Amino acid sequence: MRPAVPGASAPQTKTWSIIIPTLNEEAFIATCLEAICQLDYDLSTVEVLVADNGSSDRTLQIAGTFSHRLDIRILSIPGVSVSALRNSGARAAQGRYLAFVDADCDVCPQWLEAADRILAANVTVTGASYLVPPNAPWPGRVWYWRFDQRRTGAVPFVPAGNMLLARDLFWRIGGFDESLRANEDVEFCARAKRAGATVFADEALSIVHHGCERNLAHFVRRQFWHGSAVMNRSALHANRRAISLAIYTLACTMLLLVSGIFGRVALVSACLCALLLPPVLLALSGPERGRKLHYGPLLVVLVLAYAFARALVLPLAAFRGIHRA
């Protein structure tokens, strides 16, 4: 479900509107807002909109302490998806441009200055992959090293937690799909490209993400959550590679179980090899520059966990489809 387009015609009294969705972010919101205070930019031309989903901790009190340093507004929109939070912030925005950032991220001082330069060069949607802090747990470090490091230039998507574009373009594309619980950035950028927009990542816009996965269990839960959102019809096309891996993993696992039940040792071995093939290939094809050999086995574990988490979504989606029918 995409929203109506009321926000594009609102008055433009600022250059930038920074939109931060929150839900119980008291551990991170202060550092996020402090980083915005340290921007090398005229902050009188910037507004900050905190779109809160019903926090029960001190998130809003902490955000309120920045009112003497930032033009900050707090919007209370409880019980909605993160896409709806972002859209609500965009709807209330008075800036010519929108900058979406997550509450557990710290922007760099040149963030908006670099965005001005990039958007002036006929780029229409920009941003960058997340950086991980030096003390990040191993799942975040390894995943970033293989899949997000130096992801620049024309890209399929930029994360919604670090996306910058003109407000009128955002609404012309239709805003984020509010029916999605996750992966709204992938779906939005796919729709933007179909509308003729360019999606461009630049390292100058990189931000530090403090909320990366703490351990393997946290990684699996997050991937299952993302995978369940991918099964939404509007996101299927943009995530076909992930869905293909999930189908492949589920098929290998089912065949492995059946082979084990019937004692087919040779087939069990073949299924195990087939199951491990994608993780091993991805580990071997990691970045040559700065290659870290000890990351190889960890990467195999992470990709296998990713594949299993996404595969578990498939029977759940099928059950829901049958139940709706």
Topology:
Elements: E1 14-22, H1 29-37, E2 46-52, H2 59-64, E3 71-76, H3 82-92, E4 95-101, E5 105-106, H4 111-119, E6 125-127, E7 130-131, H5 138-148, E8 153-154, E9 162-166, H6 167-173, H7 184-194, E10 199-201, E11 207-209, H8 216-230, H9 233-236, H10 240-261, H11 265-284, H12 295-324
Parallel strand pairs: 1-2, 1-4, 2-3, 6-10, 7-11
Antiparallel strand pairs: 4-9, 5-11, 6-9, 8-10
Describe this structure in words.
- It is a single chain.
- This protein has 325 residues and is an alpha/beta fold.
- The chain folds into two domains: 7-214, Spore Coat Polysaccharide Biosynthesis Protein SpsA, Chain A; 227-324, no CATH class.
- Helix content is 48%, strand content 15%.
- The protein has an eight-stranded mixed sheet.
- Strand 2 (46-52), helix 2 (59-64) and strand 3 form a beta-alpha-beta unit.
- It is elongated, with a radius of gyration of 21 Å.
- 41% of the residues are buried.
- The model has no long low-confidence stretch (mean pLDDT 87).
CATH topology of the largest domain: Spore Coat Polysaccharide Biosynthesis Protein SpsA, Chain A
Indicate how many domains the architecture comprises: 2
**CATH homologous group name of the largest domain:** Spore Coat Polysaccharide Biosynthesis Protein SpsA, Chain A
Global Rg: 21 Å
Question: Widest sheet: strand order?
Answer: 3-2-1-4-9-6-10-8
Fraction of residues in H or I helices: 40-55%
CATH class of the largest domain: Alpha Beta
Instruction: Please tell me what the overall shape is.
Output: elongated
